[in-house]
Amino acid sequence: MKNVFLMLILMVCCLGSMNVVQKARAGTVIDTTDCVIWNKADINRMLEKWRNRDGIACQMISDSFCKFSVVCPEKFLSVMSKDKKEFDAWVSRLQDNSFIDWGNDCLDRNCLKKHMLESLNYWKSNDKLIESMRLQLVTALNKIKVEKL
């Protein structure tokens, strides 16, 4: 129930008035910008795209990772824990890939940051690696300032 509530907050606050058809089924998460239902296999495919990223793909994939971390941080970090090197690469470039407001999209990046922090601070993992990743991401987000260009 909490995940659905967070997704609605993200959609209303961060995605403005986009007309989006939503569908959900057990164990999945919705990316409302693309009307895509995500599961672990989808995140693994996206992680593979991240490994081979270039250009605008960096921002698109990073934004998707951010949204997923709002809706289901446990599942997101669980998948990312399988490739800590790529998680570290994503976190190290988070400012540049997802928190520069170019003024040409409908995603409120301050809102996204706020909801990422709320979601990540809502729970703690018993798994030491996942908990360290959660803290790493929270620390990075706390240092980020959304830049408007």
Compact description:
The chain is mainly α and 149 residues long.
Summary keywords:
149 residues, mainly alpha, two-stranded parallel sheet, 8 helices
Describe the protein.
The chain has 149 residues and is mainly α. It has one domain (40-148). 62% of the residues lie in helices and 7% in strands. It has eight helices and four strands; from the N terminus they run αββαααααβααβ. The chain has helices at 2-14, 40-51, 56-71, 73-80, 84-92, 94-98, 109-121, 128-143; strands at 29-31, 36-38, 100-101, 147-148. The protein has a two-stranded antiparallel ribbon with strand order 1-2. Strands 3-4 form a two-stranded parallel sheet. A hairpin with a 4-residue loop joins β1 (29-31) and β2. α1 packs antiparallel against α7 (109-121), α2 (40-51) runs antiparallel to α3 and α2 packs across α4. Mean pLDDT is 77; it is low at 11-37.
Question: What secondary-structure arrangement, pairings included, does this model have?
Answer:
Layout: H1 2-14, E1 29-31, E2 36-38, H2 40-51, H3 56-71, H4 73-80, H5 84-92, H6 94-98, E3 100-101, H7 109-121, H8 128-143, E4 147-148
Parallel strand pairs: 3-4
Antiparallel strand pairs: 1-2
Helix pairs in contact: 1-7, 2-3, 2-4, 3-4, 3-7, 5-8, 7-8
Largest sheet: 2 strands, antiparallel
- Based on DSSP secondary structure assignment, what is the total number of beta strands? 4
Strand content: 5-15%
Ends apart, CA distance between termini: 37 Å
Instruction: Write down the Rg.
Output: 14 Å
Q: Give the low-pLDDT segments.
A: 11-37
| Helical residue percent band | 55-70%
